[in-house]
Design brief:
84% of the residues lie in helices and 0% in strands. The protein is mainly α and 450 residues long. It has two domains: 226 residues, no CATH class; 217 residues, no CATH class. α5 packs parallel to α8 and α7 packs antiparallel against α8. The longest helix is centred in the middle third of the chain and has 38 residues. Keywords: Antiport, Cell membrane, Ion transport, Membrane, Transmembrane, Transmembrane helix, Transport. It is found in: Cell inner membrane. This is Multidrug-efflux transporter.
Length: 450
Amino acid sequence: MTYPAHFRAIAVLGLPLIGGHLAQFAIGLTDTIMLGWYGVEALAAVTLASSFYFVLFLFGGGFGLAVMPMVATAAAEEDETSIRRSTRMGLWLSLLYGMLVMPLLWWSYPILIATDQDPQVAQTASEYLQVAGWGLFPALVVMVLKSYLAALERTQIVLWITVAAAVVNGLTNYALIFGNWGAPELGVMGAAIASVVTQTVSLVAVIIYAVKVLPEHNLFQRFWRPDWEMLLSVLKLGVPIGLTLLAEVSLFAMSAFMMGWIGQVPLAAHGIALNLASATFMVHLGLSNAATIRAGNALGRKDRPHLEKGAIAVTGMSLVVSVLTIILFLTCAEPLISVFVEPDDPQRPQILAIGTGLLAMAALFQLVDGAQVIALGLLRGLQDAKVPMVMAGLSYWVVGIPASYYFGFVQDMAGIGVWLGLVLGLACAAVMLMGRFWLRSIRVVGAPAE
């Protein structure tokens, strides 16, 4: 394939995935906007709760992400049995994981207090998690099934199911947070209930599609029967992927905890800036998923020239998105942040001032954030997860978190310093992971182009 052909193929596969990630992001964004309208304390509490929830969710999501390259490689090899086996055991592991971590969500208050959060904010966050936590089970199952469908290049349905879920979430939030349409006004609890309803709707939709459109895979026939060999294979790939995700998301979770030490208003501004940065990250994440699928296909065919050109193409596409995002964040910071805060909120000027500075820092890490997630996508496609896990852990925990603390508190740079640590951690990851792919991992896929 020529480079233009690679660009087209990545776009056809990746655009629905990007749309799906943006729709998924819109669910969290809706929560942030509506809770910001409801009150700064509610927004701060759910920012804290969401950081805690996603640490647990994304580690469990490693099993879903492990299914994607395994199914893509099996599809390239025309091995229908392995497609079914890997997906089914991914579902098993996700459900088992959910049962193990649910107690942490239920009794989250002492954990949050141990991180030195404001007691009232921690109490509200804990109450939110006791309800929203039940959505973890459908969310993990949905992640596995979406990975299965995406690996089979059925990305359009992944997009539309996620869009439908975002609409359901918005309507349910509007009704239950504010008490509209005759519903009770539940505030933070309304947002928690809406989260569970949304995940359940997604689950029902994706199961119906998988059963009706792909009956040849019989995913749920004799579902109770264990497949220990494949379960171990998914576990071996899924745990390092989950730990890599955990390392990255915990970097951002720790930044939320540090912002909480600075104050409630900086924490709320951090939540807004992080949501905006996350929106642009969804584009890189969709491209990363496309890279995983196409790298998995190349691995199945042992087609190294195809992999090399595709990797260059997807990295270039990510670079273009980064440059556009940097321009947007540096020129339109205040209008973007204003969307999240009521015009008459007395704390609005402080939130705008802090948030504008944080978005300038977010512009700094666009290039490195995009590069590291593209590298991870390519490495996952080749089922190379253990060494990248170590690299990510070193980057985020040994470089990123200590740097955030040092610049934020030792150098007294407050929120700007905390975010500077994020930039350094992501930059370190980008350099090491790209080096790993091009210097070592790519060698397992056949011979280079002549």
